[in-house]
Here is the input.
Amino acid sequence: QLSAAFDIYLNILRSVHTSLKQALGRDGPAWKLRGACPACAFEQPDEPPLSPARLHSMDGNQSAKRLDGSGSADSRLFQSDYFIPHAEVERFKDDVRDRPGEAAREKRVTTCTDNWTAVKAVEENQIQVFEQTGIFVMACCHGFVECIVEMKRSGELYVTHQAVIRALTSTLIVRNMD
Here is the structure.
């Protein structure tokens, strides 16, 4: 009963928060990218345009792993403007193709390549046991988190980068038309 009452309380808070965001014009998935950082978003009328207009940093972390099937007892979904939906990310999964260009360069063996070792690669069959393999975050140069992508069954691949960049560029195009 306490759990049900707490869920109702959280639903009321979420509803009030959503209404407040709508009243302030801070709703929609693009607002975090457009106006979350005051220093990046709001330009003065007499200010000369900066080049580049904004700086962002992106990085993925594969420490936030979740086993497939774990947490399935709770059917509630966390709704947030920070997260790019998984369906949006999946649009780019087949976007990487072999592109014509330079032929593969012959491998040159040097002392650097002989001595350098990368972090142990995660085997493909190890990734398959995880539903979520990590998170990918984009932040502005002032440290405000602007969007998050859950890396599902993939690791840090091109699709997460592409989804974040697509969200950013489509938002900035809308912003420049205002």
